[in-house]
Amino acid sequence: MNVWDLIILQPILNVLIAMTNYLFSSFGLAIIVLTIVIRGLMLRLTLKQLHATKAMQELQPKLAELQKKHGKDKQKIAQEQMRLYKETGISPAGCILPMLIQMPIWIALYQSIMLALAVTPEGLLNLSRYLYSWPVVYSMLPLESHFLWLDLAVPDRTLILALLVGGTMWVQQKMVMSQTADPKQQAQSRMMLWMMPLMFGFFCLSFPSGLALYWAVSNIISIGMQYFVTGWGGLVKPAAERRAIRDKKYKRRIAQVEEVASVEADVGADIVVADSTQEEGLAHEKLGDERKDRGRGYPERLRAIRRQPRRSKGHRPKRR
Amino acid sequence: MWFNRIFINLPPLGRSFIKIPVVSYLFKHKPVLAKTLLLLMMLLVIMSGLTGLGCIRGLQPIGWSGGVIADGTLFVGSKEGRLVVVNIAAGSRQWSEPLKMPTSGGFGCAAPAGGGGCAASTGVAIYGTPAVAGDLVYIGGYNGRIYAFNSSSLGIRWVYPRDSYLKPIISGPMVMLNKVYFATSDGKVYALEAATGNKEWEFQTGDKIWSTPAGDGSTVYISSFNNKLYALDAESGQEKWEFEAQGALASTALVYGNTVYIGSLDRYLYAVDADDGSQKWKFMGESWFWATPVAYDNVIYAPCLDGKVYILDAKSGGEVADAIDLGSPISSSPILVDDKVIIASQQGVVYTLDTASNQINTLADIEKEIYGPLCASDGIVYIHTQDFTIHPVDANTGAKLATISLKSSE
């Protein structure tokens, strides 16, 4: 047995089997719990990595600016980048190193699940090489592979797990996505956003569902951690974009109201429209001022319109 | 996702390494395409790493059929999913049509009905040793079908079931009382009429069955993963008794005298009374008793996955001699040649154990992995290794004879 098996794979595998014994002989529950435990143990590293990645994302506009500024002078760009990293205290390796440390654990967990499932005679025979002489381990084998609607040893043909893995991966990807004005980067982000979930969704149709269960649980945990560090990230639109969309809506609404008002004025309705509305709107558009309503519904000028009591013989009660 | 994080950090870390002209051209003129390709390559490396590391052993059925010799002809299931007939004297070989898979296995590491994905084997896996009776030879495949071939022409006489597939068959066939007995991995034992393949009876156990039925003329003994050993009436399929061990039973039973010997995954070898299913004794090893033991002169020679051969008194279960450590797990069932027990370790070393002195000697080092049971004829032991080859070894001198390839292309 090599060092990898001895130090990493064997302990995880035996703990996984022993845990099955204490979790109502459910291998599915053991996969979920062990995934949570391992992710919990690696929490510090994961958070460190997430923080570093976030900082790196925030630095992207400055890096882009540097590239724009220095054009094809790669040496200068590299120098400036290093200076920027030093100034901000960010190390690009800080994002990757924690991840590299975690990867062997993920792979060992993956291997443990595959080994413990022992789908074929070769698998069961091979499993015997990795077992500790704990009675609890021997009494559990072969493991019961049924969990909920799944046979953990074979792919889930119901598509539920594939959709769950793909969906959670999409959410996670979306949260990680950084907002950028660069169309190339946008295209790349879009490609990442869809390609990974689709690929893993496809894998779920081919790999034992025990492994897909691990991916789903792992993704959900990652979403939680990502939320803890960056919030919903790219899942919700940035405030500026939200404001722009809202302003657009308001303008459209004002235009509609003005249109209605002008029509009603033509037929003798007495809705009062502030004279300066149009100018105000234009000025606001030109100067890019902050809106006065502070995001609490209709802008001031629109409220003025809405506050006018109706004098017509409508059925709706007056607003106070 | 960590791929994304790598990607975010690719510019400062990796771009300086991308100096290859084609790559730099792609990055310069088609950056999105280049990054997509790079990402795909990374994914492929990671996935092949995962599947490679995890898939090397045991996630795809490959098979380890033993051989059976009748009238100077060796019958064995190849890893290509064919029945192979070898004329031992002439060295001529003949292959059957490959067993058919019910559906494609697809990509990945789940165990499909017939292989595919990362398996070394391209055909239907065959685990059971063929059985020969009269002019027919019987063989079962992982595709869930049992076949009867004409032993001389290799033409198919019958196949069961004709229009469908059962669950994977890991068990081998056993012929007795003009019936073929076999079991499937959904826990069913079947008895078919040997000449026609018509079903006589079936018996459902509580869990999957990977072992070959054993018989003593009137009773069929079969072990199941539900920890139970069943004794069934060979004619009617009625249960006579059942014995429950503490662990799952995956190995084939040995019937010797009036006792059934069976190894379990709880690390015990059990001796069970063939009349009533009561336990006579049990012996604990350090790992599973996977291979079927052999008996000679009231002594049981029980190989174990802990790499030891335990020498036990057939009546009491006491150790007649110290266990012999071969240093490598033993999953291949040993064979008796005259008064010698021939044992092969997984590592590929073949030993001869003298039953008179209980001394062990190395017979030959095949240097290939051995999982399947051994067979012998006229003092020659035939060893089917995992590299599609039969290695004949002289049981007396240890001389290695010319190997026989089971690849149909050679």
CATH class of the domain at 299-410 in chain B: Mainly Beta
Termini distance of chain B? 48 Å
Query: What's the average pLDDT of chain B?
Result: 85
The rough form of chain A would be described as extended
Low-confidence stretches of chain B: 1-17, 52-56, 104-121
What is the N-to-C succession of helices and strands of chain A? HHHHHHHEEHHHHHH
Number of strands of chain A: 2
Q: How would a crystallographer describe the biggest sheet of chain A? A: 2 strands, antiparallel
Quick overview of this protein structure:
Chain A has 13 helices and two strands. In chain A, strands 1-2 form a two-stranded antiparallel sheet.
Describe it.
The complex is a heterodimer of chains A (320) and B (410). Chain A starts with a helix and ends in a 13-residue tail after the last helix. Chain A is an all-alpha fold and 320 residues long. Chain A is 70% helix and 1% strand. Chain A has three domains: 1-144, no CATH class; 148-236, no CATH class; 239-307, no CATH class. Among the domains of chain B are: 2-49, no CATH class; 299-410, Lipocalin (Beta Barrel), CATH 2.40.128.630. Chain B has four helices and 32 strands. In chain B, the strands form eight sheets. Chain B has a four-stranded antiparallel β-sheet, with no helix packed on it. A four-stranded antiparallel β-sheet of chain B has the order 5-6-7-8, with no helix packed on it. Chain B has a four-stranded antiparallel β-sheet with strand order 9-10-11-12, with no helix packed on it. In chain B, strand 18 and strand 19 form a beta hairpin. In chain B, helix 3 packs across helix 4 (31-55). The two termini of chain B are 48 Å apart. Chains A and B meet through helix 3, helix 4, helix 5, helix 6 and helix 8 of A and helix 1, helix 2 and helix 4 of B.
